[in-house]
Amino acid sequence: MVYHALRLQGGHGEYILRSALSTDQASVLINMAKRSICGALLLGGALVFLLTVYIILRIRKPLLDLQQSIAQIAEGNLNAVIPVPSGGIVRDLAGGVSDMADQLRSHLQSMTLERNERQTILNAMTEAVILLRPDGNATRYNQSAAQLFHIVRQGEFNISRSGIDELLPAIQKTFESGKPFENEFTIPQIEGTPRTLLIRGVLLPKHKDSTIMLTLTDLTNLKRLESFRSDFVANVSHEIKTPLTCIIGAAETIQEEKNLPPEQFKKLIDMIYQQSNRLNALVQDILSLSSLERNIADQQKEFTRLALDAIVTNAVKLQEENAKQQHIELRIPQCDPIEIMGDCQLLEQAVSNLLVNAIRYSGSPRIDVLLVRQGQNAVIAVQDYGIGIAREHQARIFERFYRVHKERSRALGGTGLGLSIVKHIAALHRGTAEVSSEPGCGCIFRIILPIE
Fold first, then answer.
1. pTM of the model
2. How far is Cα 226 from Cα 217, in angstroms, rounded to an integer?
3. Are strands 329-335 and 366-374 parallel, antiparallel or unpaired?
4. pLDDT by position in tens, the chain (length 452)
């Protein structure tokens, strides 16, 4: 038996409450309590397990997936997909992050397009553009600037290495005063003529420091063209002055002298005729050269397919009589059948100019004309065996009005433009003209034209 006594306080005194329970009944109660506790523990464990599974499947896994996607976006992968659950408390959070990622992607794409557009515009500019900090280091530049100063790596250029000593003080003055500057500067070249640049500097204010923007315009070609035009006008004036003086002098003599002897009158008329022809030839050559330059610049010349061998043969036939009068033999040792796209009249004029030049000035008893195929090019060669051309003249032989023997050329009726016309005709056909010669061994003039 199991006994238990409990003291109780009553209204009229003190009482003792005693209870007794048999051992069997106590064991039954304890076992029932154990079963109830175990059942409660099992039920609680089951509930905890179900709650844990729910949290893992509906909360933790979506959060982990969302965290991985955000990490990918943070690393620069803007195309990372944000998983949005179909339900649950994470759905709204994932949806908000997905919308934010879409907006970020849209803004970055817009910024990238704007940046690419600005960079494309900068690189398309023929003018060089450079942004400089106060220490002279370049923070940004376009492709023209990189080519101008031979910049290989981005962010590794200081304006002090530009080779323009006067530029750095002008830049520092602009940083101090804030006033823009515009001056012409010269870059010395190791080979060739110095380059002339028009440089403008403007201060761009920022929050903490300032940046200066330089725009550099290359005036070298413009200066060269100005010099070329000036020389061309001077040369044309000089070439025109001589025949005009002769014509005017002969005309004044005829006008003033009423009783000229027939022989002297005929001599003056012949002089006027010869000088007029010389003047006309000069004007025609100048017009031809101008037309060729315009066609080269506009690239609008329409070509047709033609047989180059037939053109060479025709040019030789046209000069045969002229060669016979000078006791010169014209030969065609080789003439390969070649077709190209070109202008028949211009190419014939180019070959004729080379032949006339060789007949007049080479002093050769024989002139060979060849047409051969070399790879993808057709080569027209006019070879003589005369006096040749000195090396110092070969580099300039295709220049306008350049003559190796000036007085001899004028006496023979040359305008000084024949070889320049040959060079421009070759350029119009996307080809080149060149010469190779040794004094006393003759020379070879070549016109090299692409077949395709």
1. 0.52
2. 16
3. parallel
4. 667 777 777 667 777 777 777 777 777 777 888 888 888 888 888 888 777 776 666 666 767 777 777 777 777 776 777 777 766 666 677 777 777 777 877 887 788 787 777 777 767 677 888 888 887 888 888 888 887 777 776 657 787 777 777 888 888 888 888 888 888 888 776 555 677 888 888 888 764 567 888 888 888 777 776 766 666 666 677 667 777 888 888 888 888 777 778 888 888 888 888 878 877 877 777 777 777 777 666 666 678 888 999 999 999 998 888 888 888 899 999 888 988 888 888 888 889 889 988 888 888 889 999 999 988 899 999 999 888 888 878 777 887 777 666 555 455 556 677 888 888 888 888 889 998 888 888 889 999 999 87
Tell me if 203 sits within 8 A of 181, measured CB to CB: no
Is the separation of the CB atoms in 328 and 384 below 8 Å?
Answer: no
Nearest to 443 by CA among 378, 390, 370: 390
Burial 117-155 (b: 16+ CB within 10 A, else e): eeeeebeeeebbbbbbeeebebeebbebbbebbebeeee
Instruction: Return phi, psi of residue 334, to 5°.
Output: -150, 130
- Name, in order, each residue with C-beta under 8 angstroms of 215's C-beta and a sequence gap of 6 or more: 127, 128, 129, 199, 200
446 contacts 433 by C-beta, under 8 angstroms: yes
Report the alpha-carbon distance of residue 379 to residue 141 in Å, rounded: 44
Angle at 109 between CA 107 and CA 113, to 5 degrees: 115
Give the residue ranges of DSSP H helices in 56-203: 61-74, 90-124, 143-149, 167-177
What is the secondary structure of 315-381 as a DSSP string? HHHHHHHHHHHTT-EEEEEEE---EEEE-HHHHHHHHHHHHHHHHHHS--SEEEEEEEEETTEEEEE
SS3 225: helix
